[in-house]
Structures are given as C-alpha cells and as structure tokens.
Amino acid sequence: MQWKRLWQPRRGLFWMMLGFNALSSVCTWAMRALPLNTLGLLLVGFIALMNVVMGLLAAWQLMRDEPPAR
Description:
- The protein is mainly α.
- The protein has helices at residues 12-33, 38-64.
- The chain is built from two helices and no strands.
- The longest helix has 27 residues, at 38-64.
- The model has no long low-confidence stretch (mean pLDDT 90).
C-alpha cells in the first residue's frame, strides 16, 4: 500500500476523514480546557474515540480503494 493513496481531495471520503480527525482534536481540547463533570468527560471522550475510529476506517477505505482516474 502507498501512503499517497490517502491524498484524494476529489473524494468525499477524504474530506470526511479530515473532518473526523479535526472533530476528535476539538473534543480532546474540550476535555482538557473546559470544566466538565464526569458525565461530560465521558460523553466528550466517547465522541472523540468514535471520531478516531471513523477517521481510521475512512483512511483504511481510501488506502484500500484505487484512486479515481483523472
């Protein structure tokens, strides 16, 4: 597999992968910077972990599929 298969800006899955990764970074920032109670920490942490999983699945799908013809 080649890493340059991840760079496919013409596919929506590429932008979803970037969005999931950005949202998990925002959730991680919120967990550290905001005064959340235990339920808030668990909820935001769960959302951050699910975004990481979805971003990894999107990256795996991009690596697995052939890039579209130009």
